[in-house]
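Design job #97: recover the sequence.
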């Protein structure tokens, strides 16, 4: 699977059913050449939006439940989301 294929998939949190958006980027380990995380759009303030700043929420690979044809299902508990913001 390529990054361009991942970017077309919607990311959904199975904990609360919330849509997080489409994959913006990936993180990977240079030493092992393995993907370590996906990056999806994060909630931004009005000021950040006006400045054109792009903020991303990093989802560790361990939190990915399944990658399907159309969506990527993740399990991200509410406590983790609050801590990242």
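Job complete. Output follows.
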């Amino acid at each position: 699977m390529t990054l361009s294929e991942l970017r077309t998939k919607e990311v959904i949190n199975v904990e609360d059913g919330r849509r997080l958006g489409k994959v913006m980027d990936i993180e990977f380990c240079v030493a092992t050449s393995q993907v370590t995380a996906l990056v999806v759009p994060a909630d931004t303030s009005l000021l950040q939006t006006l400045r054109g700043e792009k903020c991303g929420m990093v989802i560790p690979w361990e939190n990915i439940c399944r990658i399907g044809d159309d969506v990527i299902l993740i399990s991200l508990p509410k406590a983790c989301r609050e801590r990242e913001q």
